[in-house]
Amino acid sequence: MGTLGLLLICLFLLTWEADPIQGAGARSVTLPESLLFISTLDGSLHAVSKQTGDIKWTLREDPIIQVPVYLTEPDFLPDPNDGSLYVLGGKHKEGLMKLPFTIPELVQSAPCRSSDGILYTGKKQDVWFVVDPETGEKQTSLTTSSSESICPNSPLLYIGRTEYVITMFDTKTQELRWNATYNDYSAPPYDEKLDYKMAHLVSSGDGLVVTVDRESGDVLWSQNYGSPVIGVYLYSGDSLRHAPHLSLAIETLRFLTFSAKDQAEAHSSLKWSYQFVKEQATAQAQLVPTLYVGKLDSHFYASTSLVHHGVSLLPRGLILARIEGPVTSGVTVSGRGECEITPSTDVRYPPGSTASKKNHWLLIGHHELPPVAHTTILRDFPVSLQHSTEKVIPPRSTASSDSYYHQHYFQKVSGIHGNPESNKEGADGRKTVQTPRPAAALPISLTQDHLTLAVLTLLLGGWLVFVLTCLLRPTQQLTVQRQREEAFETHPQVIHNNNQTNASVSEDVTQSTDTNVTKDSPPSSTDSPPSLNSHSSNIPDSEEVSAAAHKTTEEGFSEEVQVGKVSFFPSEVLGHGSAGTFVFKGKFDGRHVAVKRILPECFEVAEREVQLLRESDTHPNVIRYFCTERDRLFTYIAIELCTATLQQYVEDPASFSNLSPITVLEQTMCGLSHLHSLNIVHRDLKPRNILLSGPGALGRVRALISDFGLCKKIPDGRSSFSMRSGIPGTEGWIAPEVLRDTPGNKPTAAVDVFSAGCVFYYVVSRGQHPFGDALRRQINILSGEYSLSHFKEESNDDIIARDLIEQMIGANAETRPSTECVLKHPFFWSREKQLLFFQDVSDRIEKEPADSPIVVRLETAGRVVVRTNWRMHISVPLQTDLRRFRTYKGNSVRDLLRAMRNKKHHYHELPPEVQETLGELPEGFVSYFTSRFPRLLMHTHAALHICAQERLFHPYYKPPKAK
C-alpha cells in the first residue's frame, strides 16, 4: 500500500481549481472549453479531448527552448517550465547551481549585467495565433509587424505566445558566452473559486500524461505525447489558463501507474484507480523534489520533478560522470520506453567515467536540488567598459596616441567606420555631423616668396599623385581580379585540400585573439532576431576599404585581400558559380573559412541568402554561416570550409573509405528536412551543392547542404512558390513541374525531393543519372523517361533503393514522399531494425484470422515473395529443425515471418549447425533470409502500411497527421 500512498500525496498537492465541464450546468460548453491543451518541449501544442486524451489536432511551432547546437558542452541549462537558469561548474567545481533570475526577468531588465561580469541583452516578441478550434488550422498570426485580415469564422481560438531572446557576453574573456530563445504561452492561473475535478500527472523525461479523478482516484486516461510535457491549459474566458499538473520522474509515474493497474487486475476491477488510506503512507512513500537534467535533440534542459524512494539521485557537485548517465543493475525503461520492473538505486558507473576531464561533464538524470548561485544583477555599467570622460574622437589638431586608441576602440565597439571627424558626440550625447572647413587663403608674404611657391607646388603635386593612386587602386584591383577569374575559367584550378588541415576547419573551436567587443559570434537559436543574432554583418565604408590590407607576396602575384575580419588570397580559388560568384579559401577571426565573393548586381540575392543561412544553420547538416563583409566592389560571405563536394566523393570514393553512401544520403535528407520544416525550399539541390566537412572530434564527417542563392522562403499558410522570378535550379536536376508552363502551376517543396532522388541514384550508382546523359537529361525529365539499370532485380538492397528512388523522381509531385517519409524508408534501416520490424509484424498478425484485411494484404502476391515455396529455398539443417516443432505452410508469407521470429527468439537454443547456417544476430541472420527472399522486406512494409497509425509501427512509418 506504500505505492498507493504516493498518489495521495500527488493528489493532495494538486488542490486546484475547476473543471469548466463540471460546472457548466448553467450554460452550454463551447468546443474550445471541451478540450485540454498540452504543450510539449518540441514546440507542439496538442488539443486533446478531456475525456480520453486523444489528440484532436496539433499546432506545431518552434521548440520551447532553442539553444546553440555548436556547444560541445552545456554552460547553462534552461528550465522550459518557467525560464529558470542553471549554471554548470564554476571555479570551485560546485556542480549545478541555480541562478536567482529567469530568462523573462533578464529580458525585462536588459540591458543589464550580473556581479560575475556577464552582460545581458534581450528582446521580447509577442504574437497571437488565430486558430480554427475545429481543425487546428492557423488562420493568421498577429504581431507588431504584421496583422493580416481573416475571414469570419466563429468561434476562433486566440492563443498568445511570447518569445524571449537572451544573449550573454563575458567581459572577462571578451567572448559571447551563451544565447537562447525561450517561448512561453500567455496563460494566467485558473480561477481558484472553481473546483477542478481532474489531476494531471506528467513525467519529466517523456510525454506521458496520466489524468486522475481527484475525488475517486480513478484513472480517467493516460497518453504519451512523444515529448516532455511543459504545460497543461484549459480554455476559459476567451483565453488559455493554466490547469493544475504535477511533474514526476518517469520511473515514479510509470511505477505508480503500473502498480495501480496491477492491483485493479488482481481484484478483477473494471477500472483501475489510486484508492488508498492516508495513514498507510510510510516514509518510503514520500515524494522528494529533485532537478531532472534531460536532453532533447542537441541541447540540454533542466526541470524540477518529484521522485519516490526507488529512483537514483545524483548528489550535489557530481560533474565527472559520462554524459550517457549511470548504469543501473535493476532496470527502469526498456528500448521501447516501457517500464519493466521497479527502478533500482544500485548505481554502477562504467569504467573510465570518473576519470579526470578537461571540461565538466554532466550526468543525465535526477539531481539533488542545487544551491542558488550568489549572483546579482547590477544596474551600473561595468568599469572595464565605462565611457571615457574625454571626447571619444578628439579633433585632428590635438590627436595623440591615446586619442587614436579611443578612436579605434569606438569604431570596433560601435561598428562605425570611416572618417572620425564625421561622427562626434556632443555634450548631450548626440552625434553631430561636422562639415569640412573651407581652405584658408595663403598669406601675401608667402606668395611673394618664389622658393616657397616651388615647395608648395611640389607638395601639391605629391598630394594629387597620392589621391589618384588611392582612387585608381580599387579599379586596378578589380581588373587584376577579373583577369585571374578569366584565367581560372579557361584553365580551372583543382584545389585538393589536405584532410588533416581541413579537419580543424569545420570543427575548429579556437577563439579569436581580438579582445575588443565585436558582433561576431557562433550561431544563435533558429529564430533569433538579426539584432541579437550571433552572425555579424560588418559593412565598412569606402575609406576604410581603400585602406584595407593588401599584402604582396615575394612572387608579386598573390595579394592578400583584407575586408573587415575576412581575408583571403585570390589565387586560392575553391570554385565558382553563376553571375561571377567566386569562392576562395580564407580566414575569419583566425579560423579557416570559405569566402564567397558576390558581385554588386547580386547584392540583393546575397542578402536573401544570408538571411536564410542565419535562419537555418543551427542544424549540423546545413552549412554554417559566420559573417558578411562588404566593400565598394563586392559582398563577401564567410561560411564553413569543407574538404570536398558530393561530386568529388562519388568520383574518388577511395579518399572517403570510412564514409558510407547511405550515411551521406541520410544526413543530406536530415538537412533538407530541417529546411522544409522552416518552410525553406532549396530549389538547386545537386551533388556540387552538397559538401563534406572535415572529420570532427570523433572522426566523423558531416554532409552539409550549401548554396542558398536560389532558396525560397514560403510564407506561413502557403505550400507553393511562384515562378515570377524565373526558372530556378540547374539543368538536369530540375523537377518537371518547374518547367511546365501550365496555368495555375505552383511548384512546392516536392521539387527538392525530386532533385534529391536524382542525387540518391547518382551516389548509389557511383556517378550515373536516372535520366541519362547531360545532353538529353532535361528532355527525359519532362517526358518522364528514366532508367535505373544499375539495380539488380534479385538483390534485396537494390529492390529497396529502387522503391525509394522511383517514388522520389515520380512525375506527379503530389505523390512524391515528404522528407520525413523518405527518412522513414527501409533504405536507411540497419539490419537490426529490419529484424525488429519482421518480429513486430509477426507479433501483430499472429492472432489475426486468415480473412482479416491485414493478412489478406500480406498474402496478396505472396507467391512471388516466397518463391512458390519458401521451405524449398532454406538450408537442410534449418528445414530439419523446423519440422521438429510445428507445421509451416511453404506458400505463406505469414508463416515465413513466424519461422523467422521463432528462430530469433530461440536462437541460442538452436543446434550449432543451424546457428552456423543462420549466421550471427542480427547481421547474418537477416541477410540469410533477405538474400533468399529479396522482396520480403518491401512487400511486408507495403502491406502493413494500413497499420501505420498504430503506436507499434510509428518507428517504421511517418506518424499520421492529427485530425
Mean pLDDT across residues: 73
> Which structural class best describes the helix and strand composition?
alpha+beta
The poorly predicted ranges are 15-27, 266-284, 320-360, 379-448, 484-557
Distance between the ends: 41 Å
| Helicity level | 25-40%
Strand content: 15-25%
* Strands, count: 39
Q: Order of strands in the sheet with the most strands? A: 27-33-34-32-31-30-29-28
Catalytic activity: L-seryl-[protein] + ATP = O-phospho-L-seryl-[protein] + ADP + H(+); L-threonyl-[protein] + ATP = O-phospho-L-threonyl-[protein] + ADP + H(+)
Biased composition (Polar residues): 495-519
Protein name: Serine/threonine-protein kinase/endoribonuclease IRE1
Domain KEN: 831-959
Key terms for this structure?
hydrolase activity, transcription regulation, Phosphorylase Kinase, domain 1, endoplasmic reticulum, Quinoprotein_ADH-like_sf, 963 residues, 7-stranded antiparallel beta sheet, globular, single chain, 22% strand, alpha+beta
Write the layout of secondary structure elements.
Elements: H1 2-13, E1 35-40, E2 44-49, E3 55-60, E4 65-66, E5 76-78, E6 84-88, E7 96-102, H2 103-109, E8 112-114, E9 118-131, E10 138-142, E11 157-170, E12 175-185, E13 198-203, E14 208-213, E15 219-224, E16 229-236, E17 239-242, E18 245-248, H3 250-266, E19 288-296, E20 299-307, E21 327-328, E22 347-348, E23 365-368, E24 377-378, H4 401-414, E25 424-425, E26 431-432, H5 444-447, H6 450-490, H7 499-506, E27 536-538, H8 542-546, E28 550-552, E29 559-563, E30 566-576, E31 582-588, E32 591-598, H9 603-616, E33 625-630, E34 635-640, E35 644-645, H10 646-651, H11 661-677, E36 680-681, E37 690-692, E38 703-705, E39 712-713, H12 736-739, H13 750-764, H14 777-783, H15 796-808, H16 819-824, H17 831-845, H18 853-859, H19 862-865, H20 876-883, H21 893-905, H22 912-918, H23 923-932, H24 936-943
Parallel strand pairs: 13-18, 27-33
Antiparallel strand pairs: 1-2, 1-16, 2-3, 4-12, 5-6, 6-7, 8-9, 8-24, 9-10, 9-11, 11-12, 13-14, 14-15, 16-17, 19-20, 19-23, 21-22, 25-26, 28-29, 29-30, 30-31, 31-32, 32-34, 33-34, 35-37, 36-39, 37-38
Helix pairs in contact: 1-3, 11-13, 13-15, 17-21, 17-23
